Amino acid sequence: MSLTLLNVIIAVVIAIAFAALNAAYLVWAERRGAARIQRRPGPNINGPFGLLQPPLDGIKLMAKQLIIPGGVDKILFIAAPVLAMFPAIMSFVTIPFSDTIVAQNMDVGVLMIFAFASMGGMSLLFAGWSSRNKYAMMSSIRAVSQAVAYEIPMLITTITVVMIAGSMNLTEIVQQQSASILHWNIFPLLGNSHNLLMPFSFLIFFICTLAETNRAPFDLGEAESELVAGFHTEYGSMGFGLFFMGEYANIVIGSCMTTILFLGGWSCPFGLFPGVWWFLLKLYLLIATFIWIRWTFPRTTIYGLLNLSWKILIPLSLFNLLFTAGLIKVF
Amino acid sequence: MSSPIQLQPDETFVLNVGPQHPATHGVLRVKMEMHGEYIVNSETVIGYIHRMHEKMGENKTYPQFLMNLSRMDYLGALGYSHGHVLVVEKASGIEVPKRAEYIRAIMVELNRISSHLFWFGAFVMDLGGFSPLMYALQDREHILDMLEAVTGSRLTYCYFRFGGLYNDIDDDFIDAARRFIPRMRKSLIKYEKLVTGNIIFRKRLEGNAFLSKETCRKYGASSAVARGSGINFDVRKNEPYSVYPEFDFDVPVYHECDSLARYMVRMDEIEQSLRIIEQGLDKLPDGPIMPAKKPKLIKPPAGDYYQAVETARGSFGVRLVSDGTKTPYRLKLRSPTFSNMHLFDETCRGMMIMDALAFMGSLDLVIPEIDR
């Protein structure tokens, strides 16, 4: 076995460990955060600050019997939760945490992440279709129309950033923003582009990330008060656990992408001590925002959600794309 | 919202919402005929927790039936007990001391606030916002603690007696109630900022489930359901009972006829109940809480008696037919939620399921009270 291959394998294993650890502990963070917002203690029994809760929950889920209801499409039913977790983990392979910490730097990193991200929608479709449950079915129809609607503005916004950077390589995109906070794509006063519409671009991208990861206020797919548990109504045991971890892994990926594309990745706002800590700081601040939004907003309606995408976000992001293209051509 | 698509009857499917469904808050079952996300037809099925309270009323003596009333509606139990004791007192001609009536009114209003608070939290939870429930429950907790100290129980009170009360209130209760009023007012401002002003919340409720005055009248709706549709009807004002004529309070009426109007009515009612409690505590007379002269055995003379009261869920009526024995001949309980709920089938046709369930939340259904 060549040394390069070995390196890649080690890197992939570390990526998987990072994804799984994050997914598990984000559940803890979410529960603690929710408890804080709701003025209650949250999980605090197992271990200091309840830190042993995620592994214990994992053990409990794994010890449970995986019930496959009668009449389901077995292959799709089993494939769906795996498909929920797998693309999220694969996306970590090309995420650069700093200029040295990256499992496999690719020239088409952006493309690869979006290719894997769109596979997430398929897992929801499989789960809903194969479950033989009306609630799951309705939920997966919702989730897929939502995924289609929000992938478009997200991609258009990403194309804008790619056009400014002139590269699809995530490391290069960050390096071009690394000088100071004014070079970041969110406030592009210096650097490659002087597009003053970029803050809006950032907002569009963030909203799309919320919708793509099925988070409140866009959690139409698993709207508890209407569709019981949505697409994972029939799942128990680790099948449910994988959906759950997949959701959180997707949040991490979404926040990583936001950090890289708009917030300058591992670069420091003042140009000092760039490194992985800055990346993680920005990443977890974004995730905290996710949690904060989830526990403070009610849910939108399905038509409100689709209207927002097709009538507001897509035209806006298209306009921004044309505007950016014009700027690049002129200057 | 009416359906923009032509509905083909052969393309529908039946969705069983309930009896175990998070949105029905109990064991209500709604058979919905769906066309995708749209409801073509719906049929509410009730009776899953029917406990024969009316039949029990015929078999038990009057005092034995006292505790049944609070099992009807576990959120606003005191209002229901109030109706029952009032009708029996009216039938047997028992004089209630002034102090007892004042305390009853204070207690019922406190219970009404606690019921509305719980509804507020559960309603926002139906819409997908979880946190307000916790805030509402914390405020409700103060009320439950106060009521527990006086009545001895937290939900299923058996506090009212024919002619008076089981227990007098003490200074601790009065202090706690006086502390509670400004705290609740502060909370109301907080709820307004957190929830009422939220853009998603307003967008979902404005224009949701238009309920005309005629529909409300047809089904006999009361409480916030009728008052949100512009019907100015409150039993406390229209058919005054107890000491309510001595209080200065308003009946909030909204004319928008949508779910937001029903929400606003209930939130305004909390403020009005606070005003009643404030005045009740100020005017509270001294004296006994039970009448000096009371028949040993309650045996109303033969006749037909009716008393309506305004509970947290609307106009609750008790019809008592007595044949002069120690058990009633018939005890009919007119529960407000029963009327309010039956609006749902007609109104939800053509709505999307998430709008329909938001509408159901705005009706404030308590299922044990329908089934009773």
Please explain how this structure is put together.
The complex is a heterodimer of chains A (331) and B (372). Chain A is mainly α. Helices cover 66% and strands 0% of the residues of chain A. Chain A has one domain. The longest helix of chain A has 35 residues, at 3-37. The mean pLDDT of chain A is 82. By secondary structure, chain B is α+β, with helices and mostly antiparallel strands. Chain A binds chain B through residues 34, 37-40, 134-135, 138, 141-142, 216-217, 219, 223-226, 228, 295-304, and chain B through 13, 15, 21-23, 34, 36-37, 124-131, 134-135, 138, 194, 198, 200-201, 203-204, 352-355, 357.
Helix content of chain A: 55-70%
User: Kindly state the mean pLDDT of chain A as a whole number?
Assistant: 82
Q: What's the pLDDT, averaged over the residues of chain B? A: 87
Q: Provide the CATH superfamily of the largest domain in chain B.
A: Cytochrome-c3 Hydrogenase, chain B
Strand order of the largest sheet of chain B: 1-2-3
Total DSSP E strands of chain B: 8
| Largest two-chain interface | A-B, 28 and 30 residues
- Number of folding domains of chain A? 1
Uncertain stretches of 5 or more adjacent residues of chain A: none
- Tell me the helix content of chain B: 40-55%
* CATH top level class name of the largest domain in chain B: Mainly Alpha
For the sheet with most strands of chain B, the description reads: 3 strands, antiparallel
Residues in β-strands, percent of chain B: 5-15%
What radius of gyration of chain A results from the CA coordinates? 20 Å
- What is the straight-line distance between the termini of chain B? 33 Å
Q: Which assembly state applies to the chains in this document?
A: heterodimer
The Rg value of chain B, from CA coordinates, equals: 21 Å
Order of helices and strands of chain B: EEEHHHHHEEHHHHHHEEEHHHH
Give helix and strand order of chain A, one letter per element, not per position. Answer: HHHHHHHHHHH
Q: For the report, how would you describe the main beta sheet of chain A?
A: none
